[in-house]
Q: What sequence folds into this?
């Protein structure tokens, strides 16, 4: 069984997509060991509870400094020994020690076609606001491995989504989630769990 920890800050829609995929068998041989949130009021913790998955909160405000928070986050992950850490809308800077320890074993879902609209300041609704302001015609989502940069790790999978003339940031966000994020995150996870994903020379290779 391939074991994962999911980290999330908000509503947990991508977490739900993973839970649903595991239940339906479209993400075979995967077990969610623990859900970690930095936000006590995150609905993702309720989703975990409803699914019978342990959910815990590790909030920076509960620690004297960032170093102590980083240590607590790393301990909470190491404690259950996952094969993969999934960042599903986790709005926290990942500690360098965690990235080193789990090299090419941390993935993230980003709501744009990286490298467009990625990096510092681009998260959540801000991404879709920037897409509409720039007037691009196609956006989408990207699943990538996490490295020590901001949205710079090797790209695993991308899916494009059309931008419609009457879109608002909210309608675009919803369509990107439905048409891209909830599709490629479970798909990527299934491939990784099956051993079909490797990283060579900084690029992802997927076995056919």
A:
């Amino acid at each position: 069984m391939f074991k994962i920890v999911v980290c999330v800050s908000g509503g947990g829609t991508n977490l739900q997509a993973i839970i649903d995929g595991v239940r339906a068998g479209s993400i075979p041989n995967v077990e969610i060991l623990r859900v970690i949130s930095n936000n006590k009021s995150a609905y993702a913790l309720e989703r975990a509870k409803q699914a019978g998955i342990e959910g815990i909160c590790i909030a920076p405000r509960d620690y004297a400094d960032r170093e102590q928070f980083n240590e607590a986050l790393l301990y909470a992950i190491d404690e259950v020994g996952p094969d993969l850490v999934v960042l599903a809308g986790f709005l926290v800077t990942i500690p360098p020690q965690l990235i080193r320890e789990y090299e090419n074993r941390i993935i993230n879902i980003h709501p744009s076609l990286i490298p467009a609209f990625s990096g510092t300041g681009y998260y959540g609704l801000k991404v879709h606001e920037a897409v509409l302001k720039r007037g691009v015609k196609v956006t989408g989502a990207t699943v990538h491995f996490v490295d020590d940069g901001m949205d710079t790790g090797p790209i695993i999978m991308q899916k494009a989504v059309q931008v419609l003339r009457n879109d608002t940031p909210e309608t675009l966000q919803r369509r990107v989630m439905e048409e891209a994020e909830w599709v490629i995150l479970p798909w990527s996870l299934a491939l990784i769990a099956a051993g079909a994903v490797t990283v060579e020379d900084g690029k992802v290779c997927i076995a056919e």
About this structure: The two ends are 21 Å apart (CA to CA).
